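User
Here is a favour to ask of a fellow structure person. I am asking you to supply a protein in sequence and structure-token form. Please set it down just below, with no commentary around it:

Assistant
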Amino acid sequence: MADLSGFPITKRWPAANPDVIQLYSFPTPNGVKVSIMLEETGLPYEAHPVNITQNESWTTEFLSLNPNGKIPAIIDPNGPGGAPLALFESGAILIYLADKAGKFLSADPARRYQTIQWVMFQMAAIGPMFGQVGFFHKFAGKDFEDKRPRDRYASESKRLLGVLEQRLADRDWIMDDYSIADIATLGWVRNLVGFYGAGELVDYGSLRHVPAWLDRGLARPAVQRGLEIPGRG
């Protein structure tokens, strides 16, 4: 049995099965990337809800795993060379899990890096911009008299959706095959038009290919399971 006692996070969130991947997460667009990936690959894992609404990601135990205080994070007891490996940042985790499972990231060098570039597009652009739209449209920002910040982020989010729309015009998935690029992006688009309720604000109804892609992704059983993992505790 793997010994994870060297990781302080296991004191607060004990591992019932330390021989499998330990996932510390919450069902947000960033969090579900990893749970969807784990469900898609079939890699054995144990999920621990880190309730960000109660600031659990800022506890000493969680910060010992991710000093940036953000979910998700993992510990793989069987990392490279058989030693435990801790990782944070959802994009890095997706790439690691894809390599570990041999799925959803092409072994062809050119296609591998093309896939990673679309993961970075989500990480650097879609996530931050859609998150700002969520703040200014659904949360505290709605009370701001000055609507310029909201409109700035809405305009940029609309532009980013246009990039995705163009990419999907002649393909079912961001790459030709379903990949970590789709897994990284699905939850954010779903949140934008669902939880954030910003579809009208970003003119989502004018799109054709992005909604069809989102429907295809949400129809996948592993995606449906992953979106609910971990529970909110």
Remarks:
- The longest strand covers residues 21-25.
- Residues 109-223 form a domain with the Glutathione S-transferase Yfyf (Class Pi); Chain A, domain 2 fold (CATH 1.20.1050.10).
